[in-house]
Amino acid sequence: MGVGALTAGLLLTAPQPASAANLIRNPGFETAGTGGMPYCWEKSGWGDNDFSFTTTNDAHTGGKAMKVELTRRVDGDRKALITESAECAPVVTPGRQYDLGLWYKTTTPDASITLFRHDATGGWQYWTDLKTLDLAGDWTEATVRTPEVPAGTDRVSWGVSVYGTGSATTDDYTMDQVADPVPPPQCTGTAEQCANGKWDVLPTQNPVRSMHSVVLRGGKVLLIAGSGNDESMFEAGTFTSAVYDPANGSYKVIPTPKDMFCAGHVQLQDGRVLVMSGNKGYPSADGRVGYQGYKDSYVFDPETETYTKTNDMNDGHWYPSATVLGNGDVISFGGLKEDSTGSVTAELFSEAEQQWLPTWKVNQTWSYWGLYPSMILMQDGRLFYSGSHVFGNNIPGTGSAIYDYGANTITQVPGLRKKDERDQSASVLLPPAQDQKVLTLGGGNIDSNPEANRLTDIIDLKQPSPSYVAGPPIPQGTVDLGNGPVPQTGNQGKMYVSAVLLPDGKVLETGGALHNRANPVYETSVFDPESETFDPMAVDPEARGYHSSAFLLPDGRVMTTGDNPGNGSWNHDVSVYSPPYLFKGPRPAITSVIDTEWNYGDTQRITVDRPIAKAELIRPAAVTHSSDPNQRFVDLPLSVDGDNVDLNVTSNPNLAPPGWYMLFAVDANGVPSVAKWVHLQGPQALKATDASAHVHDFADSPEGKVAGPGKKRTSQKVGPTLSGCDRHYGSINVCVPTDFPAEVKKTTAARCEWLKANDYGRLKVNGKDDPLRLDRNGDGTACGKGDLRKS
After folding, report:
1. Cα 692 to the chain's mean position, in Å?
2. Confidence (pTM)
3. CA nearest 145: which of 736, 603, 727?
4. What backbone phi and psi angles, to 5 degrees, belong to 749?
């Protein structure tokens, strides 16, 4: 039974201020209580296991200690916890941190310090696991510092979880509030920079039309263009990538074997980049044949800066998802096949075999997930489809779901508002990943072309039956409707939005447009997961709509690239944002990392040049089309001894899939260090098939409709105009909308005026059909003088 179920009916009195002394009552188990447990301690745990709780005389000091033992385990854990009551649970202050300590002996490697928190409105709930205890035959001290206490929390309870066969004996618990943080720093920039940050447009332009951005181990950036949505490049067989080096601002153009325009990509465990599928062919000039995805797959090596072919996928997948799993495998869904139909084939790249597995080795539901479906790995190994996708309507049902690969089931998740207007929205696993909350923001619909929305929705996947709830609206900025930027009004929001995790634990959202490849929106803000509020920031001066990217650099800045309006042009300017934390004085520095090869459950030591409040791993970006489902910020609880800081690494590879990560240290004012690179991998990553040890009541009873595998089929029929572009007009890289914005009258004159205001130029009519009535005189050219006279 989960701890949340044990707390019904507990009456909490008004919290009293925390004292400077040890906050634990009966820290050595010396005072007897009721029910066979010491005073202020209770039995807890869940799952199918055989266990015992013993007050033993084998003590560190005094005459008593607590022994928790599992003799058989299928799943779950057992733990002795501080009693969840007003009398026993320590009072805490939101925003503060606490140092926890205890002495222990263990006969199992599967023991961890586990925290629960009392929310003033939500009651008791699992908070996080802080530290895995090493095997210890003699009494050993363990210390760890909590993250900042979340808003709304008034008390905590904690203890040691045993989640493998064996025992943990503990004694002499301590809990002390960390000293007051350092005073606020002096602003080192202008008042505007210190409040809202600063954007710089770099002097050197991006040499390729890149729509894919991957931060490589070591800090360079792979920018993939392929044909760059330019049919002339495709016909010439000219496919490009570039590697950008932030250290000196240089670009190196990389030979690219195939058209990786609108491929999928993800970093593998060793830091190489897996690139899957891409563009086999553009739509036909008459619009009867759509985009086609090829089966080829490649790996990019950051060391040699070259591509190497893997085996083929089972299907073509133009616009596929790509999610790395806790064992290092990569799973992919959706996209378009070689014949322009939608792929219903789930693909699995095996980390062990370094190849795509045949279909018969991969669980199949024969479901069509659409294009670039945002599939986020949950802490128990399931996948959360957030509802963010690309092009047109969402999948049937609620538009969001939990996919269980092992059970091969799909459970619908409720609450996502306007689920069919989440085209080119962004979804991100909020910091820290241990909290299991997802934010989805913005979006529109390329087919119906309404004004993009300001919606945000937040889901807490730790809840037994998770559901989206409404978040705060995205702040409004300015929008260029054809005559220069004007303030947004009404419910105007944005699609093509980018969301980037920052090392201070917040999320930067930036860029976007109001309509299908038109009307750029200039707005940037920072979302605070603690307060669930937005704070408007300085604005990127460049338009960042379709085919733009934003991503975190190891120095704490954010880089933005691209923009591909409907007229087929491309923005080669590159912007870099310096957040306010870079104007708060000197940055802390990680002066040494004892070991850059990390295992799950490790304690890893670093040294810093001054006190820090937190440290975290941030997975480097692999972003395209507002989508980076692997982006995550993993908290590293601290054990602090002066400038020596021990970092406690999660034992759950589903929270931090194996690979290279940026390690940041952050001071009490939210100022981050420059990142160091560390490599997180097995051996536990390769054997941890059971992540239930710290799942507790996590998403265990979703109430939505459950579907198993459907009837085997070859594909999903998809219309050739799924990109929202009418191919009867102009070249292939020009997108004349199938549905103009609502404010444009359905007349030739009004449509032609809109096209002129958006710099479409001369448009040839492809074939004899003229569905938008732009060539009224039939001379083969849209919006000529004769056409306007006839309208």
Report:
1. 22
2. 0.94
3. 603
4. -60, -45
Q: What are φ and ψ of residue 692, in 5° steps? A: -75, -15
d(CA 277, CA 263) in angstroms, rounded, equals 5
CA-to-CA distance for 453 and 476, rounded, in angstroms? 10
Cα dihedral: 306, 310, 315, 318 (round 10)? -10
- How far is residue 446 CA from its own chain's centroid? 24
Q: Is the peptide bond before 396 cis (omega within 30 degrees of 0)?
A: no
Q: Residues with Cβ < 8 Å from 9, sequence gap 6 or more?
A: none
**SS3 per residue for 354-405:** CEECCHHHCCCCCCCCCECCCEEECCCCCEEECCCEECCCCCCCCCCEEEEC
- Asked whether residue 6 carries a pLDDT value surpassing 50, the answer given is no
Angstrom CA distances, 39 to 87, 89, 515, stand at 10, 12, 63
Handedness of CA 657, 659, 662, 666 (dihedral sign): positive
Q: Per-residue DSSP letters for 438-461?
A: EEEE--B-TTT-PPPP--EEEEET
pLDDT tens track for 580-619:
999 999 999 999 999 999 999 999 999 999 999 999 999 9
Write out the two tokens for 23. Answer: 């906050």
**What does the block give as tokens for 174?**
């301590």
Q: What is the pLDDT of residues 493-535, one digit of tens each?
A: 999 999 999 999 999 999 999 999 999 999 999 999 999 999 9
Contact 46, 76 (CB under 8 A): yes
Radius of gyration of the chain (CA): 27
What are the backbone dihedrals phi and psi of residue 639, each rounded to the nearest 5 degrees, phi first? -120, 115
pLDDT for res 285: 77
**Buried b / exposed e along 735-774 (16+ C-beta atoms within 10 A):** bbbbbbbeebeeebeebbbbbeebebeebebbeeebebeb
Which pLDDT score, from 0 to 100, does residue 650 have? 92
- Mean pLDDT over residues 273-285, rounded? 94
**Cβ-proximal residues to 23 (8 Å cutoff; 6+ apart), any chain:** 90, 91, 98, 175, 176, 177
Q: Cβ-count burial of 237 within 10 angstroms (0-12 exposed, 13-18 middle, 19+ buried)?
A: exposed
CATH assignment of 41-177, given 3.40.50.300, 3.30.390.50, 2.40.50.140, 2.60.120.260?
2.60.120.260
DSSP per-residue letters across 750-766: HHHHHHHHTT---EEB-
* Other CB atoms within 10 Å distance of the CB of residue 485: 16
Residue 55: partners with Cβ closer than 8 Å, 6 or more residues away: 29, 36, 37, 38, 64, 65, 66, 67
Dihedral sign of CA atoms 52, 56, 60, 64 in order: positive
How many other CB atoms are there within 10 angstroms of residue 247's CB atom? 11
Domain formed by 590-621+628-687, architecture: Sandwich (2.60)
Question: What residue type is 356 in one-letter code?
Answer: W
> Is pLDDT at 687 greater than 70 in this prediction?
no
- What residues contact 671, with CB distance under 8 A and at least 6 apart? 185, 504, 581, 582, 584, 585, 586, 587, 588
Which H or E element spans position 485?
strand 485-487
> Residue ranges of the domains in the chain?
41-177, 590-621+628-687, 723-782
